[in-house]
Give the backbone structure.
Amino acid sequence: MSGEAGPASGGPGKRGLEVVGLEVRYGPVRALRGVHLAVPRGAVAAVLGANGAGKTTLLRAVSGTLRFHRGAITSGTVSFGGSRLDGAQAAAVVRRGVVQVPEGRRVFGRMTVAENLRAGALGVPGRRAAAARERVLELFPVLAERAHQRAGLLSGGEQQMLAIGRALMAGPSLLLLDEPTLGLAPLMAARIADTVRQINAQGTSVLLVEQNAAMALALAERAYVLEVGEVTLSGPAADLAASDEVRRRYLGVGAPDTDRPVGTDPGAADGHQSHERHERTRLARWTA
Amino acid sequence: MAVFLELLVNGISVGAVYALIALGFVVIFKATEVVNFTHASLLLAGGYVIARLHPLVGFWAALAAGIAAAALVGALVEFLILRRAHVGSRGVLAIVTIGVDILLTTELTRRIGTEVLALGDPWGDRVLRLGPITVAETRVVALAVAAALIVAFLLAFKFTGWGVAMRATAEDAETAALMGVRLGRVSLSAWAVAGALAAVAAMFLCVFPTPGLDRGTAAAAMKAFPAAILGGLDSTTGALAGGLIVGVTETLMSGYQSELAFLGRGIGDAAPFLVMIVILLLRPSGLFGTKEPARV
Ligand SMILES: Nc1ncnc2c1ncn2[C@@H]1O[C@H](COP(=O)(O)OP(=O)(O)OP(=O)(O)O)[C@@H](O)[C@H]1O
Ligand SMILES: [Mg+2]
């Protein structure tokens, strides 16, 4: 959970996702302003924020789907591996290895599970699809059992697994996840969290948008808090998890033990005590 | 009874040809959500190329050229006009296609003039005797070819990457784009396929017992609209059912014209639209219009 270098962080010269000074507008509505964010290769980064903060907008700006909502990047840049993504069509972004799992799953309900997975591989050469399929079915055995069932008939949790599996079919280097645990029972949410960990362990970087802050902070190395279109807090996830500000607003005030993020070791934050004080002073300044 | 059977076979054959046109219509609607009123002129363009070229290169080469030309015209309309017309609403795009249709049809009918152009097909006016009934050879070929094309199309739609991309786009274009589907290609290919199918249909609409291609051919193509709409605009199965219903209704009504004289002359031409209205009153989304099995 601590280091920058995941098990497969790519070569030393390979750069991950870099968002610099991003501003996004939907017509007259400014949804993002001056957003800076980075997801190094092999890392998991989390974005927290209330409804309407601009989390989905941020992912749309990366995946090239703003145009479907009449939105546009009006300033700033998005790049991955050193090459620019802003201005690219969604399909071109997929070919660069950046794949988004949309908010609300959006499985193709009229198609079978197998066809959904096939659709996920449409943007990449055919020979890569077979290997990806095996990996996905290993990760989600239930999808193999339901292969010929209509995706619209799956449960919410199964649909989320399908949505993630479908995205993995393209063999992404960076996976963008938009609220994957929304509306899922705690047990299923924990399973999804485990899966994200597994996917990351296999070398895929992850940008995770979540309202379930406890889960997100447990998974991520770095986290960002978006408020009304701006990044108001950022730092190592463990520090954010320990900060009063985040505890109060996103984790709920309570006894530290019961609120401990899912899957974290109670001692995990100890190593960051010195950071924590530093972060706190910064937080106070930023939210003033 | 023999008369009824003859009419039925003819009706099914004509219906299969309408189904080809309706299928193209449905493919464009699925891929782009645009109701394509240019369809009749694509058909006319394909037929016109066949009619003009067959004396020079022979029927089969002319047919191939006609199919290619109609596919190309379809692709060009998509690429040069619809793709650039970034007007928000689909309704406005439909009106754009009406405009394009009027332009193309006007030019083509001007070129055709008052002539009736033969297509030089190898079947001529030969008839086949199947037991008690007599059917034109062209009708039998039309039925066989249309059926083969429809089956090939449905298999491609179901099993090829192109078909999966098409269906994914039809269901949710944004998510399809997130899968790496190039929406521009999907839309372009839909228009090209629709054009090609329309050209084949044009050929069958203009051979015996029809004297040939004339300025009225586009009107015949219009009967595929009720076929597509009554079947459900977004359903390939619906296009088939719609085509057959329209073909059979029209042929039976025309065949029993004298018995139905109390309904007025030309009931055969109006019948498809009457059937469409009745079906839409009962089922607003058409016979096979989508109902989601979604559970959220
Ligand atoms: N298509 C659109 N047109 C105009 N404004 C939009 C559009 N989509 C989003 N917005 C606005 O942009 C802001 C950010 O929306 P966004 O969907 O990115 O928020 P979010 O953080 O993902 O929220 P949620 O947690 O509810 O999913 C909101 O104020 C929203 O009203
Ligand atoms: Mg959102």
User: Anything to note?
Assistant: The longest helix of chain A spans residues 186-201. The mean pLDDT of chain A is 83.
